[in-house]
Design brief:
786 residues; alpha/beta; Toxin ADP-ribosyltransferase, Chain A, domain 1; elongated; glycosyltransferase; NACHT_NTPase; ART
Length: 786
């Protein structure tokens, strides 16, 4: 039996051999077999002897092949070191190592192309359990020459007692049995560029033998013209990058098809009309309604239909989206769908270009009079290796910038810092007739006829995402289905968290925290704890903008490094709330910057931390960020930062009398209900007990609500947010008072007050059971403890 051509020692060996197309040999002349192996003589001992055997033993009179072509296949299948040398070279990272093989590859590939294609079931194997690699529906391109057998009995003995069998339904296999040194092996070669995809679930036989059923597939977009292996390689790279990394654990990643939910994309004109409603809202209820208009249900545009609003032949779309909304994931999703043949097959090439990579380090200045071209950009950004001379010629032959769809990600990340010698290249990109450009809403000076905005998940997306998140971690988490359902109910009953959950990055953080057993066991999952973790993560991302390594920074380190930025946001939020405005005018921004002694020059990205959004007032277009109106991406972020601002007053009330009076004056104002809930949660998290003591003194001392219902609602919400309730002054006495107040009102004929009480307690699940200890049966049956 021949040397092992049918089984790989590891999955990495199979992947390395199939990583890149075999290039360069096509331009070689067809030689005799003796001439074709001349450059291999120093590399393979006794190769001339192998050639002589092959020439003597092969089918010399085949109708389909010449003598040398027949001998080339025979040599490939001989039990010698020839095949292993070829296989090692195909796996090598040094692509120049393949050059001595070009003449032989030309000969054998010419022979294989002459053989008729057959449709049959074939077998191949890998040692060990590698079934998880093929557990999804991704298409893999096998670029190498892969040997398979139509006889399972040929492959299985190579696996031993533990391995993975691939059963492949081939549609373009080459049966070389007639020309093989071992015809009994019934060998079928899968040609370079064969695409395979898992067809069914993996079969597991006692955790020892695994069977993966693969289909050979053809893409819907496959051209009948001259094959361009370079473009096929690009598609394969988009397949391989079709995964999303978890933000809180980048080591975890999932297929983009499973993890990506279509984001809600609205036309910018429609979004601006809704923002105008927000700006003109007369009161808090109207403000909340406008927020729900922006972040709730909305008309979506399917990604594949994004060009339908383009009026002419050129397809140019500007897509806005604030930090964390999913712009880069959107770009990767588009690239993946194009590679799958699902979107925009009319484009020969899709080039995904992260614009932040246009730096002097990657593109040093050229000699005077020379500029980088779009072809240079493609070679640098799309290919992960240096092209050979023949590959370079092939790319130049097929590349057409006007037939390429350019996905340009991150206009805002380059516009202020583009090197002068790359301005010409950047202008070429913006002039391409077919492109999608993404940007955060600030720093935009471009006039596009079609402008859209990614605004986040729809309500339906949230439920889908939560389900998918916990399905993906079901092997790591007990009762993942129950936790998924619990979290969704939690989101639905907490309006503020429900609002920010429409932002993908926030929802992932919420899901991650909910799945963290340590987090849930050590502290109650309060709104304050969620927002505190979210802000810490946003700060970490903000600090990583200059590519600094921040993984080892503690929470205190992060807060210290972002001290100025956080102080600015706290000041801005408080003064906006105090002015009864959600739209933050330029004078408020400048006031906060001045009071906190923050310079835009020293902190150029301070308005771009992911919690503020800017927009121009109608009829006024300015590119100076501090001259634009802003608003927090959700009202709850403004409320959270307002509470952070007020915490400073609790730490030193003697120097913050204005803020103390604000707390006393507004504690029963329903507009500030969430502010006080956050304030309670933050005071319980503070290092010093003075914050908690001062806070509860202000809550429990005059001025007081005469009727008592506002006072009770305030206490319930504040207790609910306190992480360590035993530290609350008079905690037990407060619960007893609440229970008696409820019992008294339940026995009265007034139905309005009991209804408010029930609503308050339903928003405070952790208090219902505690209160039941102090109440009678009437209270327990009222619905307050449900």
């Amino acid at each position: 039996m021949s040397e092992n051509r049918f089984v790989n020692h590891t999955i990495f060996e199979l992947q390395e051999a199939n990583r890149s197309p075999i290039f360069g040999y096509e331009d070689s002349s067809i030689l005799t077999l003796e001439e074709a192996v001349e450059k291999l003589i120093p590399l393979i001992p006794r190769v001339i002897n192998y050639v002589m055997t092959a020439k003597n033993e092969c089918d010399q009179h085949a109708d389909l092949l010449t003598w040398d072509e027949s001998a080339a296949i025979y040599l490939y299948s001989m039990p010698s070191s020839f095949y292993s040398s070829l296989n090692n070279t195909l796996r090598a990272e040094d692509r120049h190592a393949l050059k001595p093989w070009f003449a032989y590859l030309k000969l054998i590939m010419t022979a294989l192309k002459k053989l008729p294609s057959i449709k049959t079931v074939v077998w191949r194997g890998v040692y060990g359990d590698v079934s998880s690699v093929f557990a999804n529906s991704n298409i893999d391109i096998w670029w190498s020459v892969n040997s398979t057998s139509m006889d399972l009995k040929i492959v299985q003995p190579f696996l031993g007692e533990h391995g993975t069998l691939f059963t492949i339904e081939a549609i373009d296999g080459k049966d070389i049995s007639q020309f093989s040194a071992n015809p009994e092996e019934r060998e079928v070669i899968l040609m370079p560029g064969t695409r395979v995809r898992a067809k069914t679930e993996v079969l597991n036989f006692n955790d020892r033998l695994f069977v993966v059923h693969l289909d050979e597939v053809t893409l819907r977009s496959e051209s009948q013209s001259e094959p361009n292996h370079l473009f096929q390689w690009i598609k394969q790279e988009y397949y391989r990058n079709g995964y999303i990394e978890r933000l809180m654990n980048p080591a975890k990643f999932y297929p983009i098809e499973d993890s990506y939910i279509n984001l809600a994309i609205v036309e910018t004109k429609q979004q601006q009309q809704k923002e105008k409603q927000l700006r003109d809202a007369p009161n808090n209820d109207a403000i909340m309604g406008s927020f729900e208009e922006i972040y709730g249900s909305k008309t979506t545009i399917d990604v594949k239909n994004i060009f339908e609003t383009c009026k002419n032949q050129e397809k140019k779309v500007l897509v806005f989206g604030r930090a964390g909304i999913g712009k880069s994931t959107f770009c990767r999703y588009i690239a993946y769908q194009w590679a799958m043949g699902s979107y925009w097959t009319q484009y020969e090439l899709l080039a995904l270009i992260p614009l932040r990579r246009l730096t002097t380090d990657r593109y040093p200045p050229l000699p005077s009079g020379q500029n980088y071209s779009l072809l240079d950009l493609v070679k640098k950004e799309i290919f992960s290796y240096d092209l050979s001379e023949s590959e370079d010629k092939l790319l130049k032959k097929h590349f057409d910038a006007n037939k390429t769809l350019w996905i340009l990600d991150g206009y805002d990340e380059i516009i202020q810092n583009i090197p002068s010698h790359l301005e010409c290249l950047f202008e070429q990109l913006l002039k391409t007739p077919h492109h999608i450009l993404t940007s955060r809403p600030y720093q935009n000076v471009l006039a596009y006829h079609v402008q859209m905005e990614i605004t986040g998940f729809t309500d339906e997306n949230i439920e889908q995402y939560v389900q998918q998140f916990f399905i993906q971690i079901k092997d790591e988490l007990d009762n993942s289905l129950n936790k998924s359902q619990e979290l969704f109910r939690f989101l639905q009953t907490n309006q503020s968290i429900w609002g920010v959950a429409h932002i993908p990055v926030n929802l992932e953080l919420i899901c991650s925290l909910w799945s963290n057993e340590d987090f849930i066991e050590t502290k109650e999952l309060t709104i304050t704890s969620l927002y505190t973790v979210m802000i810490e993560w946003l700060c970490r991302r903000y600090l990583s903008m200059p590519n600094k390594k921040i993984q080892n920074l503690s929470k205190d380190d992060v807060n210290q490094r972002c001290e100025k930025e956080l102080a600015f946001l706290e000041n801005l939020a408080f003064n906006g709330m105090k002015s009864n405005t959600i739209i933050l005018r330029p004078n408020l921004l400048k006031k906060a910057l001045n009071e906190e002694k923050v310079s835009i020059q020293d902190h150029p990205h301070i308005l771009n931390m992911g919690v503020l959004k800017s927009f121009n007032k109608q009829g006024i277009h300015t590119q100076i960020e501090t001259d634009k109106d802003h608003y927090f991406v959700h009202l709850s972020f403004q409320e959270y930062f307002t509470a952070r601002y007020l915490i400073k007053a609790l730490k030193d009330s003697s120097t913050h009398q204005e803020e103390i009076k604000f707390i006393q004056r507004e504690k029963y104002n329903q507009r500030y209900a969430l502010v006080f809930a956050f304030l309670s949660g933050l005071s319980s998290q503070a290092d010093s007990n003075i914050c908690l003591t001062t806070f509860w003194e202000l809550i429990l001392t005059p001025p007081m609500d005469l009727i008592g219902i506002r006072h009770m609602q305030l206490i319930i919400s504040c207790i609910e947010e306190t992480s360590c309730q035993s530290t609350i002054p008079q905690y037990t006495a407060l619960l007893e008072w609440i229970a008696k107040y409820i019992e008294y009102n339940l026995s009265s004929e007034n139905n309005i007050i009991p209804e408010h009480l029930v609503q308050s307690l339903r928003r405070a699940p952790s208090k219902r059971s505690a209160l039941s200890h102090f109440s009678n049966e009437q209270f327990r049956s009222s619905g307050c403890t449900e």
